[in-house]
Amino acid sequence: xxxxxxxxxxxxxxxxxxxxxxxxxxxxxxxxxxxxxxxxxxxxxxxxxxxxxxxxxxxxxxxxxxxxxxxxxxxxxx
Length: 78
Fold this sequence. Notes:
Shape: flat
Structural class: mainly beta
Low-confidence stretches: none
Order of helices and strands: EEE
Strand order of the largest sheet: 1-2-3
Largest sheet: 3 strands, antiparallel
Strand content: over 45%
Number of strands: 3
C-alpha cells in the first residue's frame, strides 16, 4: 500500500506514505459486544503482486486511488 501520488515507474520514497484517520473501540450492539472501527478517510493505492489458489497463480490486483471514507464496521464472533 502506498499513497495515491506514488508512481511505481518513477518511485520517490516520500510519496509512498499515506495517512490513516480511524478510531478503534469496544461497543455493544443488540446482540453482543463488538470491536468497532470508524474510518474517517483513507486514500491509497494497493498492490497484490500474486494471488495463488491450490498452488496455481490466478493473477494480481492493483487498486488505483482507493478511497474509504465515513465507514463504520463492527466485528464480532461467537
